[in-house]
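Show me a record, fold above all:
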Amino acid sequence: MPEVIYSLAGKKVYVAGHRGMVGSAIVRRLASEGCEILTALHAEVDLRRQDQVEAWMGKNRPDAVFLAAAKVGGILANHTYPADFLYDNLILEANVIHAAYKVRVEKLMFLGSSCIYPKFADQPIVEEALLSGSLEPTNESYAIAKIAGLKLCAAYRKQHGKDFISAMPTNLYGPGDNFDLDSSHVMPALIRKAHEAKVKGEKEIRIWGTGTPLREFLHVDDCADACIHLMKTYSAESHVNVGSGEDISILELAGLVAEVVGFEGQITRDLTKPDGTPRKLMSADKLRALGWSPKIGLKEGIADAYHAFLDGHYLERSNGTVSGDLMGQSDISFERAKTSARHAPTHATVAHHPSR
C-alpha cells in the first residue's frame, strides 16, 4: 500500500455537491474515515456568488475540500445553453478554489470529466493527451470549464504552494444517476429501457447503431473510493484519470443489463442511427501505479444501479439539464422519484446519445 501523506481522520471535510451522484458517494465513503463531514445546500450558499462562498468557508473553516459540484446536462442542454455551462462552472469552481486558498484549506480535490480530452485522442487516453487536439463540439463549453478548473488548481499549487489536486472520472453509474431517457447516458438508459420493456411485456429493446462501439464504466462508489485514496496518497500538479481501465461493447453491455434486469426479449440494432466514437477508454495506469483498483464488478454494479432505480434513488432532468440548478447543490436534487419505478413506466423508449 502507498504511504498515507494526508490523513482525513479528525479533519473537517467539505463536500461541495453532496447531493449529486459523485458527491453523495464521496459522503458515503467518508463515513469510515473518522472525519467531520461538512455540506451546504443551495439555500445556504450559492456557489456562483463569491461573497456567499467566502463567508461560508470563513465561518466553517474546512481542512479539506472535495469539489464535486457542477452544472451538468445532456447534449441538448449543452448545445442550447453554452454560456450558462461555461459561466456557471467557471465561476463556482473559481469561487470555491480561491476561498479554499484564502481560508488556508490544507488539501482540495477538483473533480473533472473525461470530456476534457480531445475528441480524437489516442486510446487508451493518457493524462498527457490534455490539450493535444480539438474537443468534442457538443460539450465544449463544459469541457473548457473543467480544463480551467484543473489548471486553476495547478496554478495555486505553483504560485501559492497549495496542495490542490485534480481527478478526472470516466463514465460513472450507480445510485443518484440520471435515468431520464431524453438526456441520460448509455448505462442508465439501457437499465430503464430493459425494465420498462419487461414491465410492459415487450419482445425487444432497440439500441442505436451496430452495438460495436466500446465504452468504459465505473461504479460511482468505486470512484468515491478512488478519490479518497488519492486525497490521502497523492500530491502533484498533474491530474489523475479515475476509471476501470476496461471497456465493453454497447451490444455486450445491453445483454448484461438485460440479464440483470430480467428482460428475456431480443436486443435489436437500429442501423439507421450512428455509432458515435468507436472507442472511449481512459488509461488507468497512473491510478494503478498509485495502488488503487476497482472493487465492484460490472455485473454487480449494474445490479446495484438497478436496485437504486427501483427504489427511486435517481435524478431526472427537464429538457436535458438538471432541474433548474447546480448538480449536487440543489435543494431538489434526486432524493426520491415522483413515481416509483416499480410501478407502471411513464416514459416511452428513447435512444441514448451514441457518443456517451
